[in-house]
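Appendix C: a fully annotated inverse folding record. The material below is reproduced so that readers can follow the format used throughout the book. The structure is listed first as tokens, followed by the designed sequence.
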């Protein structure tokens, strides 16, 4: 009788140890796609993934990012939080938490919905200046949110052009600026119709020099 009771106690003790071990077992979370897993929980640090057939894989209609095995991007009509969650090109964006084609969205007859759209970053597609209103010093130009005239793009921020005096383009450090009439300016601002008086004074000197019209190439033969 004593021996039997001893065996029962021993078995219960072992079972308790197994349960405790299971509860304290450390979960190894996957850090990249296609790592082995036993449950969806192990893939939770990889956005838009699930544990399927023993491996962390992208959810249906989501796809591995090229050369980035720690993330998936969504196809059309998938859920998203930002443009980064979508296809990754300027044709598709996250609109109302859904990956949508800009062309389809902006061709919609629902103008009220289009007006409510707000671009996330400079360079995003737009239809009106309102779409760019969350981005400081920007406006909708040629279908994209761009810096207003007199500002240049620096790390997704529009900064004012300082109009530094220059001898050539190498003196102009602000991205996109060129040395025109001895000042570092943005060509699209300089050649704008509102600046016609100054732009008419400009003359290109060599092949490959920047120009706005044929008039600017008047001193170069056969151009």
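Designed amino acids, in order:
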């Amino acid at each position: 009788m004593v021996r039997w009771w001893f065996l029962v106690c021993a078995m219960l003790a072992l079972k308790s140890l197994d349960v405790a071990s299971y509860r304290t077992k450390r979960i190894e979370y996957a850090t990249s796609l296609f790592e082995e897993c036993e449950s969806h929980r192990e893939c939770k640090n990889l956005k838009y993934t699930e544990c399927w057939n023993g491996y962390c894989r992208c959810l249906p209609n989501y796809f591995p990012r090229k050369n980035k095995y720690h993330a998936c991007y969504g196809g059309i009509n998938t859920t998203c939080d930002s443009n980064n969650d979508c296809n990754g090109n300027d044709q598709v964006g996250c609109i109302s938490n859904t990956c949508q084609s800009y062309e389809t969205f902006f061709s919609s007859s629902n103008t009220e919905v289009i007006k409510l759209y707000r671009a996330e970053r400079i360079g995003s597609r737009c239809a009106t200046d309102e779409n760019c209103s969350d981005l400081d010093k920007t406006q909708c130009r040629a279908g994209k949110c761009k810096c207003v005239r007199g500002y240049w793009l620096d790390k997704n921020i529009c900064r004012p052009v300082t109009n530094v005096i220059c001898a050539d383009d190498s003196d102009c450090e602000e991205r996109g600026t060129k040395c025109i009439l001895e000042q570092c300016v943005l060509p699209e601002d300089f050649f704008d119709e509102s600046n016609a008086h100054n732009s008419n004074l400009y003359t290109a000197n060599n092949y490959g020099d920047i120009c706005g019209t044929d008039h600017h190439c008047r001193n170069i033969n056969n151009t």
